[in-house]
């Protein structure tokens, strides 16, 4: 299923309720587009009725819309399982550049993709299915044509190396911000390149004006499609703060997080307590000497 219908409905101020059989799986961009109210993924329950494909809430058609009913999730949503070995690694990061006539957008996304897969993206577009060869120059031209309105894009990899990214370009008081969420699929936990994350962070900081980067890992389908059943939540692996916010917070304060480990890595993607550690770290950074810092977790 592609993600262009949600964009059309938002432009016309309508809600989209996508109704599918239970075997249908969505792409990451489309599922993300359907996550915000009033849009909804509606699944036909084999036992009768309907349920929300993302939360499992049982739904009924009432007053011209699908409405949650009851407080329990549908059995069909909670009963199915995801293959135990498969993993999804997600890298969410923001870069901010001065608004310069020579600025080429998408370079940080390309660098992260190259770093984690050994090759750049193969295609990009503003909706699925993606049909344009990867081109930072064309991406930049489109964003400039749309400015000052934001530009939302999708990038994809090859079937042999499952990867997909959403990319948002916005003008801010600090310059041009690029928010990227790159997700990669792996057949086994051993394939996940956790040891490459520190060098990736260094590359993005030194070469691409990184402000923040959050990486998470979860048990989910390696082909990056999303089923209409309960899946494990993502767990934090690492959080990187760029030099701009470090200067605002103060280096001494940033080096003394309220964690048992030194400020290098939050976890290995297996401990649910890592979310609490991450929130404690974010609160610590926000309450530093430079309290006006913009440090925040990537969305």
Describe the protein:
The chain contains 9 helices and 13 strands. It is of the alpha+beta class and 299 residues long. An 8-stranded antiparallel β-sheet has the order 8-7-9-10-11-6-12-13. Strands 1-2-3-4-5 form a 5-stranded mixed β-sheet. Helix 4 packs antiparallel against helix 6. Mean pLDDT is 85; it is low at 291-295.
SSE blueprint:
Elements: H1 4-11, E1 17-20, H2 28-33, E2 40-44, E3 50-52, E4 57-62, E5 65-73, H3 75-79, E6 87-97, H4 107-117, E7 123-125, E8 132-133, H5 136-146, E9 151-156, E10 163-172, E11 175-186, H6 197-208, E12 210-219, E13 235-241, H7 243-249, H8 251-254, H9 274-286
Parallel strand pairs: 1-2
Antiparallel strand pairs: 2-3, 3-4, 4-5, 6-11, 6-12, 7-8, 7-9, 9-10, 10-11, 12-13
> What is the SS-derived class?
alpha+beta
Terminus-to-terminus distance: 23 Å
On the 0-100 scale, what is the average pLDDT? 85
Which blocks of ≥5 consecutive residues have pLDDT under 50? 291-295
Q: From the alpha-carbon coordinates, what is the Rg to the nearest angstrom?
A: 20 Å
Main pleated-sheet profile: 8 strands, antiparallel
- Percent in strands: 25-35%
In N-to-C order, the SSE pattern is: HEHEEEEHEHEEHEEEHEEHHH
Strand order of the largest sheet: 8-7-9-10-11-6-12-13
Please state the overall shape, judged from the principal axes of the Cα atoms.
globular
Residue share in helix: 25-40%
């Amino acid at each position: 299923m592609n993600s262009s219908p949600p964009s059309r409905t938002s432009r016309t101020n309508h809600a989209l309720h996508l109704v599918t059989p239970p075997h249908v799986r969505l792409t990451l961009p489309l599922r993300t587009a359907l996550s915000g109210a009033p849009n909804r993924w509606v699944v036909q329950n084999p036992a009768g009725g309907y349920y929300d494909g993302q939360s499992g809430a049982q739904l009924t058609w009432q007053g011209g819309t699908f409405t949650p009913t009851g407080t329990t999730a549908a059995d069909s949503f909670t009963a199915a399982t995801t293959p135990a070995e498969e993993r999804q690694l997600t890298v969410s990061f923001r870069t901010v550049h001065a608004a310069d006539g020579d600025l080429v957008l998408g370079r940080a996304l390309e660098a992260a993709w190259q770093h984690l897969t050994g090759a750049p993206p193969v295609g990009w577009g503003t909706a699925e299915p993606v049909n344009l060869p990867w081109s930072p120059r064309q991406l930049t031209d489109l964003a400039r044509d749309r400015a000052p309105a934001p530009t939302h894009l999708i990038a994809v990899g090859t079937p042999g190396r499952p990867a997909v990214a959403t990319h948002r370009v916005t003008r801010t008081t600090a310059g041009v911000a690029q928010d990227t969420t790159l997700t990669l699929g792996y057949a086994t936990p051993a394939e996940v390149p956790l040891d490459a994350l520190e060098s990736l962070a260094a590359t993005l900081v030194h070469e691409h004006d990184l402000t923040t980067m959050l990486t998470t890992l979860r048990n989910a389908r390696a082909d990056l499609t999303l089923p209409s059943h309960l899946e494990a939540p993502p767990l934090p692996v690492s959080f990187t703060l760029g030099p701009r916010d470090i200067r605002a917070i103060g280096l001494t304060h940033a080096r003394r997080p309220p964690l048992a480990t030194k400020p290098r890595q939050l976890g290995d993607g297996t401990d649910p307590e890592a979310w609490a550690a991450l929130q404690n770290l974010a609160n610590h950074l926000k309450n530093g000497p430079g309290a006006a810092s913009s440090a925040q977790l990537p969305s």
